[in-house]
Amino acid sequence: MATNSSVIGLDFGTDSVRAVVVRVADGEELAQAVASYPRWAEQKYCDPARQMYRHHPADYIESMAEAVRLALQGRAELAASVVGIGVDTTGSTPVAVAADGAPLALRREFADDPDAMFILWKDHTAVAEAEAINALCRSGRFPDYTKYVGGIYSSEWFWAKILHVARTNPRVFQAAANWMELADWVPALLTGVDDASRVVRSRCAAGHKAIWHPSFGGLPSREWLVALDPVLGNLPTPLFHDTQPSDHAAGRLTPEWAARFGVPAGIPVTVGAFDCHMGAVGAGIEPYTLVRVMGTSTCDVLVAPPEEVGETLVRGICGQVPDSVVPGFIGFEAGQSSFGDVFAWFERLLRWGRGDAVKPGALLPKLEEEARKLPPGGYGEVALDWLNGRRTPDADQTLRSVIAGLHLGSSAASVYRALVEATAFGSRAIAERFVGEGIAVNRVLAIGGIARKSPFVMQTCADVMNREIGVVASDQCCARGAAIFAATVAGAYADTGEAMRAMMSPVERTFTPDPEAVQAYEALYRRYGRLGAFAQEWARGQ
User: Fold this and answer.
1) Sorting pLDDT into bands at 50, 70 and 90, what band is 1?
2) What pTM value is reported for the model?
3) What is the CATH number of domain 6-273?
4) Nearest Cα residue to 181 out of 68, 302, 287, 60
5) Alpha-carbon gap, residue 383 to 422, rounded angstroms
6) How many CB atoms lie within 10 A of CB 115?
């Protein structure tokens, strides 16, 4: 393979898609571009009051093409050097598809129906359906299909969303020939797969969100689906059989998409995976390293050798799946349903009524500056980080946040500090769950915009968790991880581990706990726990 060979990592986020061109030899990022989703920017097909968030497939198609075009614009030699494409996406973000694999929203009769679009990871319209899944799994009538996803199925995941559409929009459900994750659809689109039954399914997506596992023989049985709701008997069973990790190719780039991108036709496209899992690869994840992808929400990823995991099952996380992160290891996932979204919400409150006089994000630097001057605990305020429910430990999307200890002396900065501390307390709870269940956390790495842009947030996390936190240098670790898999499937490296060691991003800064703050936060963390117990009891009484 030529020494100047490059690969493209495509990272489909909540607000935009990123295209990053990475040199195969050493992981240097040669070019990148970001394209926002136009319909999403207008908040079309969303209803935040109902926690309904949908993406139109045309947003993905148009923005992907634009991002690659912008990244390679005027660089014909670089475009010609591309030997593979890797794909990562948000998830669980499923969609109803026709027999040819096309999302139903691309059909005229479903063009404006939100249920025919991609149901975004943060959509919480399927809470009742998730509860039905959990009740059936605990009934003893069938194998406990939540065994490898922490014992709790979430409304953010694949089957809950399908069941919600089946119950509330029969027109869309009956028109669907199959369902697939965004992480499966994008590679199928790029490689010209026109039969939903032939789409290569992601081990990562299927294992963590669709309760696929080798010990079950794949997906849950048809009998289980019918017991959940007879309407699910109309689904093709199973929706798919086998799955593949991302060191496999989903196919080869079609001439049509090669022309749109300006790259060679026939290059391999990886099997997709979720953004956080590929971000962990971009950061060079090692066994028992907790990689935290810190953005609008967080996703925490850890890998461990299967022979050391043995029969250990970690309660209340988002799954433990063989080969879902790095082939040959068990991949564990946890996370917080809101992180950066917590800060953005508070800023929106402060900006209310000020129109365009204050741009989004403009207040956060000043808030951080003032909050940093306050001691741990501010002026006595304490908060929960559950503005979008709780993902882990112990998923419960019915939970709501609480801000307690408010008084006439409370300031915007002290409330903001309480919210930052709440997100750090939630981070600590996740690490403690892993350790308490017998899975060590020997190191913590952080990637994402917040990790690199907010020293205050990162120092607070280090103090609350009482752990050093290394911040990885790349702004585009998820896309870099996708590129690492692209280099692997292109044959540039013998396996993912070799590619990762050559192409991963280094750590640029380490945050070390402050002993005085660590001591102060011990008492505050207990207050957080008591407030959380109150909020859970309140939610049960609603």
Assistant:
1) low
2) 0.93
3) 3.30.420.40
4) 60
5) 5
6) 24
